Amino acid sequence: MKNVTENSPFHRGEQLLQERLGVKDKMERFGRKVIRDHIPAQHREFYQQLPFVFVGHADDDGWPWASILFNPPGFISSRDKHSMRINALPVVGDPLSESLQVGTRLGLLGIELPTRRRNRLAAHISNVSDEGVDLVVDQAFGNCPQYIQNRELVTVDAETIPNTMPPPKSKEITTLSSEARALIERSDTFFVASYNDAGSNQARDGADVSHRGGKPGFIRIDGNTLTIPDYLGNNHFNTLGNFHETPKAGLLFVDFENGHLLTLTGTVEVLWQSDETQHFAGAERLWKFHLDHGHHQKNVLPLRWQFNDYSPNTLLTGSWNEAKALQQAQVQRDQWLNYKVVQVVEESSVIRSFYLQAQGHQQADFYPGQFLTIKIQINGEPVIRTYTMSSAPSDDYYRISVKREAEGLASNYLHQSIQVGDMLLAKAPRGDFTLDASKERPAVLLSAGIGITPMLSMARHALVEGFRTRRMRNVTVITAARDQQQRGFFEELDELSRQSDGQLRSFWALSQIEEPFAASELKAGRDYHHLGRISEALLQAILPLDDYDVYLCGPSGFMQSMYDLVRGLGISDQRIFAEEFGPASLRRDRYQGQTIAEFTPAPAASEAIVEFVDAGVEQAWSAGEGSLLEFAETHGFTPEFGCRSGQCGACKTTLLAGAVSYQSEPSFPVADNEVLLCCTVPAAVDGQDVVKLALKI
Fold it and tell me: Which of 9, 276, 297, 669 has a CA 20 to 30 Å removed from the CA of 402?
């Protein structure tokens, strides 16, 4: 293990975790600026106006505890920037009472729930009296407001409740009663104490207390063990760093409505690699708390709080019930499931959006830019199509936006017949055309027509992730439309740009201005930014000199021209990503010396006997009769299909005997005994002139 730097504000455990996650150098620079050995003036004012403060400490046996001290505002004061006075004593049954001794190290959390403001402080006791304690400050720093629910203190006078509140009492516990479990299960907030005792008597050593928030149900109870998600924070890793050095924790649950407390202490373990993490929205990792003992303190708080609303960050997280449902949704990814149309929106003269909500199941999570495979009944016949999602993964609905095509059977049916309240069948979203919002390289999203839909999903996701992580990827959206009548999602992209504080920019190119509008009625720079096709001059005017990732989606001719254009501007082929459905594929220009693993199909048979087992039919196939999907349709079968390019998986069936040759590389995953009919033919077998194939259709 590496030794901690002597002048670092972080101890060894914190530094090791920062190093593990690649933020150590950044946090060293940042920490030395914001972690002070004194209380700044604004923090002194903040503590003085608080009616309560949370305190963390470790008892003589090494068990950490979290506590609350309270009195009318002004009970916390500081005569100078290195000291603090707290005129309050612990409530009945609080282990802190036995640890109020000179030299005891404390961690303090000042928190103002209505404003979501909080500050942290580490100190040690310099004096104890009948009214409270005097502290010497070791460290002080501010904390971000993430995951703090808005609550309003409605009773602060300790003399207004005693006449109506039963006398306080405390019960020591070693197991979680049904009453304790109920409090934990409905909690959206708790406080966690931890400590590090390196024996070095450094300011960075000692106790800490921190806030944790989430949706009710974000703590899972298994007997006397709690499993808790750890969300993205400030990268200090004060709590987890203490866990690394001293794997123990004290938890405090506040019954905000009734004035009860549940204070627990026990051992902890951090789950860095858990399969459950991927299903819990917002979780970076998990940690477990194993109860050793605690106290259920009844009627000890003369304070009451009224819940107002959740933190916006909390709304981006999940619960264990939702995590379980998402895990089940993964199992059901290949099943047709019901979705209800809850909203229909006209986006332009040719584009209509359909908002879908899962019925009786959890909608599967997805990546921005993926597509949804739906099944609709038209004239009594099932019709399967794939439509790119225009919603973000964080939205509580799926949204597909469909362009009405003149000869489009499905698109015309959706536009003319589907209404709010109708039900659609859909399979979970899939696709490889996605945006990683965590990358630092700026992204350019180039689209035309209905190709805007994956770009909307990506842009919405980038904004949400920027809010969640406080670091947004720079995104430029450049969209081509035929005219202002077909310019869909103009206001939505404009609003996303406004919310991003300049990190997301949106530009429009119109091929023409449609009557009855005159060119003068549409303001350049506001209603559009370029008249004509997207050109080299436009890109050079919009994009500063930089290294970009470029995403393309639109008609095949548009994508090829944009690909050639950005390649000519020096963008590497490896930095260009395209939604290539069916015939919309690119002729790519590779750099000299660039090695690309090319797809090589297995040798195809010249003749074969194909058995459709369920129907009990055998048919002769020969080269030139197309894919197995086309062959099945020729002989009167109607297998499901969607994209016809190996992406959606709708035509997947079971291969009972023989082998197949994929004529194009599929992106949909299949098992060894499965086959995608749309892009396969019978495979050649050495020594057999006529091969045999058996399919479950």
Answer: 669
The verdict on whether omega for the bond into residue 516 sits within 30 degrees of 0, i.e. cis, is yes
Same domain, 218 and 79: yes
Q: State the pLDDT at residue 483.
A: 87
Judge whether 436 lies within some domain.
no
Q: Return the beta strands (E) in 103-237 as ranges.
A: 105-112, 117-128, 133-143, 150-155, 169-173, 189-196, 206-213, 220-222, 225-231
Tokens of 163: 């006449």
User: Quick one: 231 and 301 in the same domain?
Assistant: yes
Task: Give the C-alpha separation, 209 to 239, whole Å.
Answer: 8
Share of the chain above pLDDT 90, in %: 73
HSE value, Cβ hemisphere, 13 Å, CA-based, for 630? 13
Do residues 261 and 295 share a domain? Answer: yes
Q: Which residue has the tokens 């002139």?
A: 689
User: How far apart are alpha carbons 45 and 119 in whole angstroms?
Assistant: 12
- 315 and 184 within one domain: yes
Task: Give me the pLDDT at residue 348, please.
Answer: 93
Domain containing residue 491:
443-578
Cα–Cα distances in Å, from 303 out to 47, 153, 260?
Answer: 18, 7, 10
* 376 and 300 inside one domain: no
Q: How many CB atoms lie within 10 A of CB 293?
A: 14
- The confidence score (pLDDT) of residue 4 equals 44
Q: Does residue 357 lie in a domain region?
A: yes
Same domain, 549 and 421: no
At 231, list the tokens: 């969300």
Asked whether residue 171 carries a pLDDT value surpassing 70, the answer given is yes
Q: 422-454 b/e with 16+ CB inside 10 Å = b?
A: bebbbbbbbbebbbebeeeebbbbbbbbbbbbb
Q: How many domains does the chain have?
A: 4
SS (H, E, C) 367-381: CCCCEEEEEEEECCE
Token duo for residue 429: 């979203």
Q: Are 47 and 113 in the same domain?
A: yes
The overall pTM is greater than 0.70: yes
Alpha carbon distance 85, 337 (integer Å): 61
